[in-house]
Amino acid sequence: MNIAIVASAKGNQHHRILAVARELGREHHVTIYSRRDDAEGKPKTRVAPGVTLEQIDVGPAKSLTPDDVVPYLNDVGEHLMKRWNQERPDVIHAHSWTGGLVAVAGAKGLDVPVMQTFHTVDATHQKLERALGRRAKAVIAGSGDEESALIRLGVPRGNIAIVPYGVDTERFQRRGAIATKGTRKRLLHVGPLSPERGAYTAVRSLQGLTDVELLIAGGPEPEDLDQDRDARRLRALAEQLGVADRVTLLGQVKRASVPKLMRSADAVVSVPREAVTGIVALEAMACGVPVIASSVGAHLDSVIDGVTGLLVPPDRPARTARLARELLCDPTLRTALGYAGADRARSRYSWERVSQELVRVYESACA
Question: Is residue 174 part of a domain?
Fold first, then answer.
């Protein structure tokens, strides 16, 4: 199958799109089309066996916000139309509303099914996303919660297929190096430092815990933490609550170092107000580390409460502390949740499994 993927060359989802493309490239021919946003970027790059990245030279060679890239989308669409008339793909998979616009333009006049993934429903572009969702052969949602949001948007239920975002189960696994750890039990939060991402809840939960440390990985580079507003507020909160000696802000951690950091934790606390991908919980599960996750978004699919992790409503620090106490005082429970979580991550969320499910959606659309 000749698969065309239209996506930004950068962004939060790029490494996942690339990982799934590599898996698809084992048995199919995959071309990823992106607007060139780097002056050093080559027009065509073979990124893996069966996978080619084609960067379209339209607009300034720098990263642009979705709204700033709009004036150049028509030219990108025209480029794709010429390209696909020369080499017709069997299926086109567009990511985000900007990708959807250029994919629809590029596929004009071709009898080629267009798949659409939004990743998140954008409140400021709902009319556009509704139109793209209704026009697409299938809209791929990453979770049941995202499916519900698409239905509310106006996308027909029958046009939606659920394929989870997935996790790198080769990098995130039970075995491997473990970050240095002292004698205290360790909780870990990974992600941005803003209140909606759950770091404040994690800090507040320490009030109900004794001899437990909290590591927070995320935010700016370590050397910039002192100038970061959220970092300063978190530190002030920890001081106010009397837990500052047990809270460590690590700043941005290299992605390669995250697995060993997770394996050093007794539990990972991932309690954002929204969880579009739920990737932190999935990575913790893949590492065999029990997770306390907010009962929202993709967590409702990936974390089976009491089996592969523990669910808690967001912004509930006292309840989060109670669940953490249960985990930290019960090594048998931690082990059971860890093994079950790792098994679920491997069997349901590996790149191989995700790519297989995508192929089934593609084949159904082409039938």
Answer: no
Please state, in angstroms and rounded to a whole number, the distance separating the CA atoms of residues 275 and 296: 6
pLDDT in tens, 319-364: 999 999 999 999 999 999 999 999 999 999 999 999 999 999 999 9
* C-beta of residue 45 within 8 angstroms of C-beta of residue 25: no
pTM of the model: 0.91
CATH code of the domain covering residue 214: 3.40.50.2000
Chain-centroid distance of CA 15 in Å reads: 9
Q: How far apart are alpha carbons 103 and 196 in whole angstroms?
A: 33
Tell me how far apart the alpha carbons of residues 22 and 50 are, in angstroms, rounded to a whole number: 7
- Output phi, psi for 105, to 5 deg: -65, -45
Q: Which domain holds residue 252?
A: 185-349
Q: How far apart are CA 90 and CA 83, in angstroms?
A: 13
- Kindly provide the b/e burial profile for residues 244-258, where b requires at least 16 CB atoms within 10 angstroms of the residue's own CB: bebbebbbebeeeeb
pLDDT tens digits for range 290-316:
999 999 999 999 999 999 999 999 999
Residue 173 in any domain: the answer is: no
329 vs 299: CA distance, rounded Å: 24
